[in-house]
Amino acid sequence: MPSEPSKDLEVFPNPQTENDYTIHMRVPEFTCLCPKTGQPDFAEMRLDYVPDKLCVELKSLKLYMWSFREHGAFHEAVTNEILGDLVAATQPRFMRLTAEFWVRGGIYTTIVAEHRAVDWQPKTPVQLPAAR
Q1: Do the Cβ atoms of 81 and 30 come closer than 8 Å?
Q2: E strands of 3-125, at which residues?
Q3: Rounded distance, CA 89 to CA 14, Å?
Q4: How far apart are CA 50 and CA 53, in angstroms?
Q5: 78: helix, strand or coil
Q6: What is the CATH number that goes with domain 11-116?
């Protein structure tokens, strides 16, 4: 197999450190295992972050997410573990991970975990008039 799952998150220098900008990523095929039954849990992960000095490299993120396929964890635990690892690797100004798990036992679960750098304040968004 050309690639293997990996817990290593690679980073690269943010090409535009002067500006706050948001990077949005969707991981629609996340899987882990239910720690009670061993059955697979499926989720879409949505990552939004404002980088500081570093950005996460996409292939390493894909291999990192793949590493949870045989990992048993509660939804809350795995979401916060992933956020913690991404924050440790990139040290962003802001990061939000939304984990939207598919139905299990008639219940959908969505976990939203956030990190905000202590000294970072978001800029006030510009409200433009509606186009006519």
Answers
A1: no
A2: 11-13, 23-33, 40-50, 54-56, 94-104, 107-116
A3: 13
A4: 10
A5: helix
A6: 3.30.1130.10
Which residues are paired to 112 by β-bridges?
98
Helix 75-90 and helix 58-66: axis angle, to 10°?
150
Q: For the chain of 132 residues, list the mean pLDDT of each consecutive stretch of 10.
A: 86 96 97 94 97 97 97 96 98 98 92 96 89 82
Q: How far apart are the first and last CA of the chain?
A: 54
Spatial contact of 7 and 67, defined as CB atoms under 8 Å apart: yes
From the candidates 20, 34, 48, 52, which is the catalytic residue?
A: 34
Residue 121 dihedral angles phi and psi, to the nearest 5°: -125, 130
Q: Which tokens go with 11?
A: 């980073």
Q: Which residues contact 81 (CB under 8 A, 6 or more apart)?
A: 73
| Catalytic residue, candidates 20, 32, 41, 55 | 41
34 a catalytic residue: yes
